Amino acid sequence: MAKLLTAIGLMSGTSMDGIDVALLRTDGETIVQRGPSAGYAYDARFRDRLKQGLDDARSIGRREERPGTLSDLERDLTLSHVDAVRDFLRENKILPENVDVIGFHGQTVLHRPDEGLTVQIGDGRLLARETGIDVVHDMRANDMAHGGQGAPLIPAYHAALARGLSGRREIAAPVAFVNIGGISNLTFIGAGDALVAYDSGPGNTLIDQWVEAHAGIPYDQGGMIASEGSVLPELADRYLSHPFFAAEKRRSLDRNDFAPPTGNEASLDDGARTLAYVTAAAIMRSARHLPVAPKTFVICGGGRLNPVIMRDLSTLAEAEGSRVLAAEALGLNGDSMEAEAWAYLAVRSLNGLPLTYPGTTGVSRPVSGGRLAPRPADGLHAHGGSK
Ligand SMILES: Nc1ncnc2c1ncn2[C@@H]1O[C@H](COP(=O)(O)OP(=O)(O)OP(=O)(O)O)[C@@H](O)[C@H]1O
Ligand SMILES: CC(=O)N[C@H]1[C@@H]2OC[C@@H](O2)[C@@H](O)[C@@H]1O[C@H](C)C(=O)O
């Protein structure tokens, strides 16, 4: 049996709202003991820098390139992660020497699976040096090098959670986990733990972009704006008739694959309402490509906190005989699940276990991935003045 390791996962997702941190004890296989978690929000200025970074990244041709502001941004993003780890350790009274590994996602600034290009900025060596903890990073690249979409990576962790839930009365099989982040993705766990997973559509990004442009706020908290509006069927159809949903082959999404409506297409409320519906309907439309309809959808990610999305999802799922549950209804944490996944995947990477499978990313065979940046042999700040 593989050894139990203590791992911290760090996720800065496509919503660019902040860094999620979670601690796990795991063997990278069946044993998952969830520990504390926390979120550290970016301020508005740093979010603007990240948005600029996405623009600068458009000209990247090779994944090592860092045009425009990207080098500075990569350093500062990494230093924000250093601060997040230090705060997290202090708040939870954990010593760095008691953590075996950090799984570091970094920030996706460009994702073009059709060109075999995915870029996550984040300096694993700097993080290892500043925290004194081994870091596994760049976990999407090897999947792409083997013909995969480079995303989603969370399905291996969803499968581990599902094993822990089997036999629970609330859950009728088959189960699909749905992560509603900036983009949404789903993981279907079939008979014998067979995994089918893919990105399912725009998640919160369109809603965030819409309310930011028209109300100057970063997101529609509690779906308050959407709940005042009505669904505009033509606008919704325009999104839902995107070739992404009907395509034979599932592909992973970049944040910019769907654009928000233009200003005069809807009032603030109707726009938010329509986009919330689109988020829910996109998930159900994508679920039609699964081998069989899930009986239970378990929802995680920030979108589960928008009751308008959740109501639409429940209505659409019930019409197909399925049930929708928020992760919390099963004792899971819908905010920290991605960070937990990065901790779990880091341990799998150390043990040479697959991170992705043909059924999850379209990779040619199950492959491991991630690069190890070891902590300095002589402890923290090995780059300091004594050398
Ligand atoms: N209380 C809330 N009410 C409504 N929406 C919320 C609430 N809290 C978070 N959200 C939405 O969830 C988003 C963040 O979700 P999450 O942290 O899961 O995304 P992410 O991890 O950045 O994205 P991805 O999974 O695509 O990488 C916010 O941008 C916002 O749109
Ligand atoms: C390239 C990239 O960063 N993709 C993210 C994004 O956000 C959600 C969806 O699109 C998913 O495919 C992926 O993140 C999750 C955590 C994953 O890889 O499982």
From TrEMBL:
Signal peptide annotation: none
Taxonomic classification: Bacteria, Pseudomonadati, Pseudomonadota, Alphaproteobacteria, Hyphomicrobiales
Organism for this UniProt entry: Sinorhizobium saheli
Record: residues binding ATP: G13, T14, S15, M16, D17, G18, I19, D20
Family under the similarity heading: Belongs to the anhydro-N-acetylmuramic acid kinase family.
Entry EC number(s): 2.7.1.170
Assigned keywords, A-Z: ATP-binding, Carbohydrate metabolism, Kinase, Nucleotide-binding, Transferase
Pathway named in the protein's UniProt entry: Amino-sugar metabolism; 1,6-anhydro-N-acetylmuramate degradation; Cell wall biogenesis; peptidoglycan recycling
Name of this protein: Anhydro-N-acetylmuramic acid kinase
Function according to Swiss-Prot or TrEMBL: Catalyzes the specific phosphorylation of 1,6-anhydro-N-acetylmuramic acid (anhMurNAc) with the simultaneous cleavage of the 1,6-anhydro ring, generating MurNAc-6-P. Is required for the utilization of anhMurNAc either imported from the medium or derived from its own cell wall murein, and thus plays a role in cell wall recycling.
